[in-house]
């Protein structure tokens, strides 16, 4: 019977092509606007590392005091002094600190020109903590950190540029006129948002291409390629030593903890460390520390751009307006067929039969609107850069899950919108229609 009702729906839609086209276009534009903004919102609000997000934490220690911090919150990064204190304490299962580096890469072919690559100076635990996948080799070990070794991990894209995609483990690469031995080549890895480096505003930038040991970068007195915030506590200080021993923050710390008990214990450690700094005279305020997991950290950092939320709200409002228009069009269409309904009821059709027939017809409208909406969604994806920042707009993709969701929303919303017109149509009294016709 469903096939029969669908055939009746198609015949009914053909009787008034203009009205049918208006309904289909109304659904298509509404669902397309919603799906484009939803795709962007989904891309920027998803969990970037769902398998471990509850076990990775960003510690914070307030080294500026209430006079300079923002709404009582510690800075989003740490000083070299505090970062090294956390690393030397070894209170976490795994731990790392990192800062951004921007390095000049010398091509392996002598005729090529140097080019810049962005990456990070970090510790070897970085790769196991964040589940970085490898194409060749692996990350360096703790001994390399301790020995301040000149080793490097490069990305698959950089490996393709330099070595044509071949296994380059054991070969050398020249970065900033320093020679490094390659120990690993990562697969394409670019979590969005880049939760571990929100301080530098790199949430949606291109994937990093090179990683070197933090200890080696400090040995070379390498400057940060990212942000350096001194707030109101003073300038960078005099020279390199003045900078890293000062109160400017530029290093992002992360720790991996297995349980809530471990997290509570680590938070107590941070509190005790801040108390120690207070007793030493460095801090003149009460300990102010935080420990946030990945999702709490992203919320604190406002990782979801406000324009994506606003656009999604506006698009959903537009979709509701389209559905209201569709309700009016369906009501007009169904009530025109009151004589037909009266005759069907007189011949024995029940109200349930009327419901099934008209809802099937609405489903056909929704399906057609969904198909057209898919085409418009594809166009919307191409033009999303006109509304959102390009680095955010390019994250939205029309994948199979979004295709299925678009069709489901279009059909489901149209069928829901058809309930009131169908209810009105099912209330038609056969006797009145037979008498008047």
From TrEMBL:
- Residue spans crossing the bilayer: 21-41, 310-332, 365-388, 400-420
The alphabetical list of record keywords is: Cell membrane, Membrane, Transmembrane, Transmembrane helix
Provide the ABC3 transporter permease C-terminal domain boundaries.
314-430
Extract one GO molecular function annotation from the record: transmembrane transporter activity
Reading the lineage from the top rank, the first entry is Bacteria
Q: What is its main location?
A: membrane
Q: Where in the cell is it found?
A: Cell membrane
> What's any one GO cellular component for it?
plasma membrane
| Record carries keyword Cytoplasm | no
Membrane disposition: Multi-pass membrane protein
Q: Does the keyword Transmembrane apply?
A: yes
One Pfam family it belongs to: MacB_PCD
* Stretches assigned to the MacB-like periplasmic core domain: 20-217
Query: Which InterPro entries has this protein been placed in?
Result: ABC3_permease_C, MacB_PCD, Macrolide_Exporter_MacB
Q: What is this protein called?
A: ABC transporter permease
């Amino acid at each position: 019977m469903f096939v029969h009702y669908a055939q009746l729906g198609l015949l009914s839609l053909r009787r008034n092509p203009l009205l049918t086209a208006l309904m289909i276009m109304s659904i298509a534009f509404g669902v397309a606007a919603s799906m484009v903004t939803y795709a962007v919102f989904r891309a920027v609000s998803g969990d970037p590392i769902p398998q471990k997000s509850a076990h990775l934490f960003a510690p914070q220690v307030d080294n500026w005091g209430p006079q300079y911090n923002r709404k009582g919150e510690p800075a989003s990064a740490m000083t070299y002094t505090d970062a090294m204190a956390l690393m030397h304490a070894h209170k976490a299962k795994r731990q790392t600190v990192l800062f951004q580096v921007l390095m000049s890469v010398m091509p392996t072919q002598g005729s090529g020109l140097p080019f810049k690559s962005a990456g990070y100076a970090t510790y070897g635990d970085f790769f196991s903590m964040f589940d970085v996948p490898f194409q060749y080799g692996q990350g360096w070990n703790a001994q390399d950190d301790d020995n301040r070794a000149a080793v490097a991990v490069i990305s698959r894209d950089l490996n393709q540029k330099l070595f044509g995609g071949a296994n380059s483990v054991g070969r050398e690469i020249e970065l900033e006129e320093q020679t490094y031995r390659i120990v690993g080549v990562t697969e394409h890895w670019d979590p969005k948002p880049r939760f571990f480096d929100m301080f530098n505003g790199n949430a949606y930038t291109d994937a990093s291409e090179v990683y070197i040991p933090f200890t080696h970068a400090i040995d070379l007195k390498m400057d940060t390629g990212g942000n350096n915030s001194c707030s109101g506590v003073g300038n960078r200080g005099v020279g390199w030593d003045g900078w890293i021993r000062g109160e400017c923050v530029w290093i992002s710390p992360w720790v991996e903890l297995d349980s809530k008990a471990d997290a509570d214990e680590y938070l107590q450690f941070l509190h005790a460390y801040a108390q120690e700094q207070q007793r030493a005279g460095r801090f003149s305020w009460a300990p102010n520390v935080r420990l946030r997991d990945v999702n709490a950290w992203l919320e604190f950092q406002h990782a979801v751009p406000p324009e994506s939320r606003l656009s999604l709200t506006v698009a959903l409002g537009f979709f509701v307006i389209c559905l209201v228009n569709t309700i009016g069009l369906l009501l007009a269409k169904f009530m025109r067929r009151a004589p037909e309904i009266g005759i069907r009821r007189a011949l024995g059709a029940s109200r349930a039969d009327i419901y099934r027939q008209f809802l099937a017809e609405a489903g056909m409208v929704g399906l057609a609107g969904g198909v057209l909406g898919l085409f418009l969604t594809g166009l919307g994806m191409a033009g999303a850069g006109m509304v959102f920042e390009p680095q955010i707009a390019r994250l939205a993709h029309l994948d199979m899950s979004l295709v299925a969701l678009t069709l489901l929303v279009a059909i489901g919303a149209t069928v829901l919108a058809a309930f009131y017109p169908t209810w009105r149509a099912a209330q038609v009294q056969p006797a009145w229609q037979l008498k008047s016709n």
